[in-house]
Amino acid sequence: MDLLKMILGANDGGNVRQLAGQFGLEETQAKSAVESLLPSLAQGLKNNMGRTGGMDALLGALKGGNHQRYLDNPAELTRPETTADGNGILGHLFGSKEVSRNVAARASAQTGVDNGILKKMLPLLATMAMGSMSKQTGGGANKDMGILGSLLDSDGDGSVADDLLNMAKKFF
Fold first, then answer.
1. Which of 2, 143, 154, 169, by CA, is between 20 and 30 Å from 106?
2. In angstroms, what is the C-alpha Rg of the chain?
3. pLDDT in tens, 112-162
4. Domain ranges of the chain
5. From which domain of life does this come (predicted)?
6. pTM attached to this predicted model
7. Per-residue pLDDT averaged across 25-43, rounded?
């Protein structure tokens, strides 16, 4: 299942309703905001995975971060700890607050939703994106690397680092 569908469909749309209520938006506005912000998060994730150690850091975060709770329990989105966790995720994905501000400004221009609201929503969406990926990969404190790790671990040794290195060598 794709990331957007998973986030929009979580709890039968409960997460989108939570965001709408939390920020004083109509559900359609919250949905548009998610649809507009998520591609930038996905691009940041892709860029981060291309950096040295990025894939291992992602797998570690998915395995031990307990991010599913943000997707499974919409009330988690109201907690200050969720925003702090989301800002940490954004720091890894974007590298600077300036990029986050630009992402929110671009989404505001696309959706008509206030830029200030989108800047506050972005870290919450980052936690839901991690929760969605964690569910897809079987992440969690007591789980294996899951689907993502299995796909990347082509030699079955339990480590993706050597497999990624071999993939990179093919490009040079």
1. 2
2. 16
3. 999 999 999 999 999 999 888 887 766 543 344 444 554 455 566 666 566
4. 3-142
5. Bacteria
6. 0.76
7. 95
